[in-house]
Amino acid sequence: MTTRFATLKLRLALIYAAMILMAALFARVCCAAEAGGTLGEHMYYRVGRGEDLYSVAQKFDIGIGELRSANPRVNEAHLKAGTTLVLPTAHLMPNVTHQGIVINLPERRLYYFDAPGGALSFPVTVGKEGWETPTGTTYIANKRVDPTWTVPDKIRAEDPSLPAVVPPGPDNPLGKYAMDLGFPGIRIHGTNAPTSIGRQSSHGCIRMYPADIEKLFNLVPLKTKVTIINQPYKIGWQGNNLMLEVAPPAAGSVARNVSTEEVKAALNRSPVRAYVNWDVIDMTVKRRDGMPVTIGRSAGGETPTLAQTPQPEETYPPAATPAYASAQSASPAADYYQPYAETTADTGNDRATDRWSQAARRAGTYTPRSRTVAPPTYVIQGSDSDYGGYYTSGVTMY
User: Fold this and answer.
1) Exposed, middle or buried: residue 101 (CB in 10 Å: 0-12, 13-18, 19+)?
2) How far apart are CA 368 and CA 365, in angstroms?
3) Tens digits of residue pLDDT in 65-99
4) What's residue 105's pLDDT?
5) Rounded Cα gap, residues 263 and 336, in angstroms
6) With contact defined as beta carbons under 8 Å apart, do 350 and 282 qualify?
7) Cα 155 to Cα 162: distance, rounded to the nearest angstrom
8) Taking residues 371-391, what's their average pLDDT?
């Protein structure tokens, strides 16, 4: 009897260990995908005992800013075990050439497109107000292990207690790995303060979680192209579904309000006609939660290609392409994108609308609006062990 009990305990332990391994692998691989689609998928997570937003963010490779934006109603100061969090682990590709490293400042996220298994995405910290990370195209000029930090005079003027030189070690803000860019004084590096990842709090450099910088450092060769952009919203296709993602609010020169009219202008530059829901677009623009939202569908039923993705104004100025000119001449008075009428069956009411509709509710003119988010495949149950838990499928996000 004792032997059978011991055997049963061993089997249960092996099953639990396998589940932990599956969760760990999924958490680290979920942000890898072929360039051209949506990276990853959204998930839910039930908080375990002793966890806070910072530990959850680091566990699932999410920046603290995007985790907060995806969970605006969560009381961070009194986060209880069992609380269900939305994990914003899905992202549209940035609308630039998919080559080398691309860093999008408003969403505080780095993309690497030359990895052997497909595109990778990592949360980062970018320059704070007054120390904004420069935009433009540069390259990896140097790679250093256990770097020494020579503190710039301007930073020492802010904090005279800093030494002139910080040697390698646990007190070095550069962490264990650093990659110097062609921009003077700007580098991609690790950090000894992982709770800062996902913020605007650096002096212009790009910080990464220690595990992320180690992975990227070993993948990226010298002279790799680095493109730094300021793209507060992204538009793309997932099959026949048209998607919109608006980055969480930023500060300083990174901050820029996005309007529904601006999104409309970008949509009208696409050679693919689609039906869109302007109410959903307006809601997504106002929420700015950094999560891809379905805003419409291809009108012709064809699956659009990456080259047909509508591009935001700041990255791709309007161009009189043959496809666009042909469509406009065929119907010059009409919007290239028409209102999407088939919304009732495809979306559900979104209670978060209340955040910007209080005046309408008081005036008696409030009408619930709806949106759809790509539903997650998994719910992960928190536990005392790293990546502990189990999977449950078929959960709708909103």
Assistant:
1) buried
2) 10
3) 999 999 988 999 899 999 999 898 889 999 898 99
4) 95
5) 12
6) no
7) 8
8) 31
Whole-prediction pTM value?
0.73
> How many C-alpha atoms does 348 have within 13 Å on its Cβ side?
8
Q: Are 68 and 76 in contact (CB under 8 A)?
A: yes
- Output the CA–CA distances (angstroms, integers) from residue 14 to 20, 21, 25, in the order listed: 10, 10, 16
Domains of the chain: 9-90+376-392 (3.10.350.10), 96-229 (2.40.440.10), 233-373 (no CATH)
Q: Which residues are catalytic?
A: 189, 205
What whole-number distance in Å separates Cα of residue 250 and Cα of residue 327? 36
Distance, in Å, from the CA atom of 82 to the CA atom of 48, rounded to the nearest integer, reads: 6
CA distance 231 to 210: 26
- Pull the structure tokens for residue 69: 């934006």
Q: Backbone phi, then psi, for 64, in 5-degree steps?
A: -65, -35
Query: Could you tell me if 115 and 219 are in contact, meaning their C-beta atoms sit under 8 angstroms apart?
Result: yes
Q: Which two tokens stand for residue 225?
A: 């192209």
